[in-house]
Amino acid sequence: MNILSVASEVFPLIKTGGLADVAGALPLALAGHGIRVRTLMPGYPIVMQRLANTRVVATFDDLLGEPARILAATHEGLDLLVLDAPAFFDRAGGPYTDGNGNDFIDNWHRFAALSFAGAEIARGLLPDWRPDIVQAHDWQAAMTTVYMRYTGLQHIPTILTVHNLAFQGQFGADIFGQLRLPPEAFTVDGLEYYGDVGFLKGGLRTAWSITTVSPNYAQEIMTPEYGMGLEGLLNARSADLEGIVNGIDTNVWNPESDAHIARPYTAGSLKQRAVNRQAVAERFNIEQDGGPIFCVISRLTWQKGIDIIADVADWIVEQGGKLVVLGSGDQGLEGALLAAASRHRGRIGIVIGYNEPLSHLMQAGADAILIPSRFEPCGLTQLYGLRYGCIPVVARTGGLADTVIDANEAALSARVATGFQFTPINADGLRQALRRVFKAWREPKVWGRIQNQGMKSEVSWESSAARYADLFSSLLTRANLS
Q: In what residue span(s) does the Starch synthase catalytic domain sit (predicted)?
């Protein structure tokens, strides 16, 4: 079975969030099910620099107004098709924003071009390969299913995978004429969204199947609280909506062999974590004493509940805990955390920015990871925490609720608890959960059992890849019957 995956970022070449992790890990996991995935991605400068031995497999004289090429390459086991379109992607900044953090004003054009190229590959652009199914990821690739619907490719099964419904790709109606779609595409059954053009909305309307990254999030997004204005459409398509929880690459995230940590360890040698704990304390200038070290590894935004962290930081210190934070984002939230660190030198440490090796060390050395997200489609940092014995303390929402078993009395008695959940998602809710965390910390046998149970959790792609394989098979069967 041949799958074309269309994604705007793919780890390990370029990453801004969990989308890249999934786009990079899922194809490798599906290979074990006899499924070949080729991934179409943009040729950003950093991608072009990191790839070797590329070859041209197709050209466009006019890809929505610009020349472009499709390059084939392999990288760390991934079979890649790279859209080399300098006018769209050869520029400074990140995948979506310039050096000042502002969205590129032509993002609609850039990712419509990526999607158009994906549709043309589905049509047979490549001389020796054609996909059986096309999977598009998030709004940046959602137009792939739209182009396929309105240009005679509706017979090919398509899947739209939503990693975060909050990012929708909504643009003014004035761009529609440049998308090279027939007039009927700009209707409520297509791209029209409250008078604008909605890339994600169009994908949700036209894809054969819709997946999102956890079962709980699939239910949440059909409600007004989490549906971001699309809950009506999602309810209408509920029969085609499925939540499949993300996995992680357990080769990259493996405390037994991780080159980024100070001392490897296993569930049977948790005492070795003390070396990593010391390394975290030194990196953040944190005092070593008897209290737990809590870590935060996150974008520093309201969605991630970072204001809640700032509200409870003083309280954590009063209770004898320490806090280390790695991330960047909203300047006001960065400032609030830096101010807390200034008030509590030796108890709170902050690193503004992102550092992949440091994130591994923090998971290996901190005692617990705080994830108070107001909504979280799946989340990956709690899965890394489970894998590394860094106990997750999570808001009861989305994939966080699906993947962490709360250490309530029943779960503790049954020895199945893997972390702590809390609700309501506010400072009081988090403090209530942390009271339970501190209590468990003072009982080393209880704490150790929670760590061990977490490290036994199934966090790989194995079971989720099997569910995707079943979904692909069902779509092919449906296509053959139609």
A: 2-235
Domain that holds residue 362: 267-456
Q: Indicate if 468 and 415 belong to the same structural domain.
A: no
Classify 74 as helix, strand or coil.
strand
Phi, psi of 68 (to 5 degrees): -160, 165
Domain assignment of residue 228, yes or no: yes
Q: Determine the angle formed by the axes of helices 107-123 and 199-206, rounding to 10 degrees.
A: 30
Cβ–Cβ under 8 Å, residues 453 and 418: yes
pLDDT at 240: 98
If you average pLDDT over residues 283-312, what whole number do you get? 96
136 pairs with which residues across the strands? 6, 160
Q: Mention every residue, 6+ apart, whose C-beta is less than 8 A from residue 268.
A: none
Element (H, E) at 63: strand 55-63
Asked whether residue 92 falls in the same domain as residue 237, the answer is yes
| Beta strands 209-212 and 420-422, pairing class | unpaired
Distance CA 31, CA 18 (A): 20
Q: What is the pLDDT of residues 403-449, one digit of tens each?
A: 999 999 999 999 999 999 999 999 999 999 999 999 999 999 999 99
Nearest alpha carbon to residue 18 among 296, 380, 353 = 380
Q: Judge if 343 and 416 occupy the same domain.
A: yes
Confidence of residue 288 (pLDDT cuts 50, 70, 90): confident
**Are residues 351 and 207 part of one domain?**
no
Helix or strand run (H / E) with residue 370 = strand 368-371
Q: Do residues 147 and 284 both lie within one domain?
A: no
CATH of the domain at 236: 3.40.50.2000
Q: How many residues does the chain have?
A: 482
Beta bridge partners of 3: 37, 133
Under the banding of pLDDT at 50, 70 and 90, the label for residue 75 is very high
What is residue 193's predicted lDDT score, i.e. its pLDDT?
A: 96
Binding-site residue numbers for ADP-alpha-D-glucose are: 15
Q: Do 332 and 365 sit in the same domain of this protein? A: yes
Residues 353 and 336 in one domain: yes
Handedness of CA 50, 53, 56, 61 (dihedral sign): positive
Query: The pTM is what?
Result: 0.92
Q: CA-to-CA distance for 344 and 323, rounded, in angstroms?
A: 10
449-to-307, 322, 444, 446 alpha-carbon distances in Å: 31, 22, 9, 5
Q: Is residue 337 part of a domain?
A: yes
365-396 burial, b at 16+ Cβ within 10 Å, e below that, comes to: bbbbbbbbbbbbbbbbbbbbbbbbbbbbbbbb
Supply 175's token pair. 């761009």
Number of domains in the chain: 2
Answer yes or no: is 261 within a domain: no
Give the confidence band of 121 by pLDDT, cuts at 50, 70, 90.
Answer: very high
How many angstroms separate the CA atoms of 249 and 269, rounded?
A: 22
Strands (E), 208-337: 209-212, 241-243, 293-297, 322-327
